[in-house]
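Schema walk-through. Below, the input block comes first and the output block second. Nothing else is stored per chain. Lengths vary across the set, and this one has 702 residues.
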Amino acid sequence: MLKTGISIVAIALIFSACNTSKAPQKDMSNPFFSEYKTPHQVPPFNEIKMEHYLPAIEEGISEQVAEIKAITDNKEDANFDNTILAFDLSGDLLKRASYVFFNQNSANTNDQIQALARDITPKLTTHSNNIMLNKELFAKVKAVYEKRNELNLDVEQLRVVEKYYQDFERNGANLSDEKQAELRKLNDELSMLELKFGENTLAETNKNFKMVVENEADLKGLPADVIAAAAELAKNDSLEGKWMFTLQKPSMIPFLQYAENRELREKLYKGYTNRGNNNNEFDNKQVIEKIVKLRDQRAKLLGFANHAAYTVDVNMAKTPETINEFLMKLWTPALERAKTERADMQAMINKEGGKFELEMWDWWYYAEKVRKAKYDLDEAQLKPYFKLENVVDGMFYVATKLYGVQFIKRTDIPVYNEEAIAYEVQEADGKHIGVFYMDFHPRPGKSNGAWQTGYRDQSYINGQMITPVVSIVCNFTRPAGDVPALLSFDEVTTLFHEAGHAFHALFTHGTYRRTAGVVARDFVELPSQIMENWAKEPEVLRAYAKHYQTGEVIPEALIAKLVKSAQFNQGFETVEYLAASLLDMDWHTKTFENDVEAFEKTSMDQIGLIDEIVPRYRSTYFSHIFSGGYSAGYYVYIWAAVLDADAFDAFEQSGDLFNPEYAAKFRTLLSKCGSDEGMAIYKTFRGQEPSIEPLLKRRGLK
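--- output ---
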């Protein structure tokens, strides 16, 4: 999601350099140019056409150029209102148009949108460079910064001034003209490479691989709902009478868990782990080579040892060394646990008479067998109780119990895709909070994974609060035939996770755009991950886990099995995550030569990763770090896990999962995020710094 000041354009340069030319008239049929007449002023998706994006973004750039020129031309001494506040409020049209466009490119893309993105992205990068390297603007900001303690500013204003000054510094404002020109070139190249990486990964996931099964015997072991879903996929691809499996996780993971055909498990798994590494037009190896080298050059240009040092300097962790030390504390016990899990699965193979060693494509299959043997539980027993609509109700139930909010389904609010659902979120007294979109299932134009984004942030304009419009986008199991969408428990927790991000955005309340809801990257996963805890609590399960056919509440015996098995396979899950996190840090701290595969292998060999596990994301499809904004930051999920485990422990220790005092404090944390440093905000909620003990206990690593 783009933020204020991250924008576009060569058009901006034309307007500023040729100020005698007459600006073209706005086409007022373009919905971006008028106040939205929709409920709660959400984007009028039903009116927005492809031809509207570029003119709106170009006009948005032009308007922001003019707004910034008004700041720099002001002859009065720079102060908070005429410089910081004016800058904070600039770029409104650009924000509106670019939010819609880039969200569509992630969730609803096609060839036209992707081509337009390749046109728009360099314009946005140029515009961003023009702002952050504007000497006159920086001089004004610096003047306010240097006298900030003499201006009688309140705490929030003081933080906004300091954050904007930091932004300019980190984006090269203090560099010489020569180095600024070099920085512009690096930024331009990187923006296009990161876009290319994402396009390649999307194609490799959604277009370039499918496994078609023609022999019904090859489906042996698969649950009926998985077979039905595969038949539906094949039918939709004009392959009626066959079964199709894709690299989307709702299709792939059940096959790896249950299919007895080991050869097909290997084929599907290798299709997944070789994405972006097939030496075709969508290969990402050369893209990665260029990205990491350019990022390293940029970091050094800005005065940092490497890209990781640059990135985490503004995070809670502060240094790459702190992160690596933290990750390795978890790595050692997690790896030992994974080795024990491997031994359990090899014992299962041997017991069944298998004459082979466990391989990485066997892990899910034998993990299910071991779970069944140890806990008399498998995923197929749980899924009938996790109908998508019921899980959504469960998430609403938790939010209502914690925060007193209510969710009203709205069919009169335009949606960007027919599968998206819109809700109005209200306080208990009916006061409007925001609009909440949910979009659940895979489709060809949607990126893989799950994320939360927004179409409008909470803000204030002329003293009036503007309410947020947020969205969560997922790739969950689709309905198939007479069977509704039944979620795996991993998908259940994903829904609660993304909803946690949405509540952060919905509850944010701040006066200034630069700080309202804007937190360090290694704090941002706290609001999402804490929600996962409630999804698995027996009290909550009883409220939403109901059999899709009978309506029967999940049996106590099944809840007990789920609770008992909570630490099952945690060695594997922690190791594959930590391996990816450490790989990310290596990419952004170590010198890279010219072989992506060799670099990754060396990285994993140095930490002793076992052959049966690969990093959760291998380099060539590691979108989080090469196109998704988490570069040198994938560690943040486990960093925030310490916070969320400690925070949830407060609720548990109180004896009330919905303790009103803690719930109110946590909502305050969500609303005030950005008003102070992450640890200070957390300590205000908890009264102390977080302990790592609850996380170790939760994962069975102690």
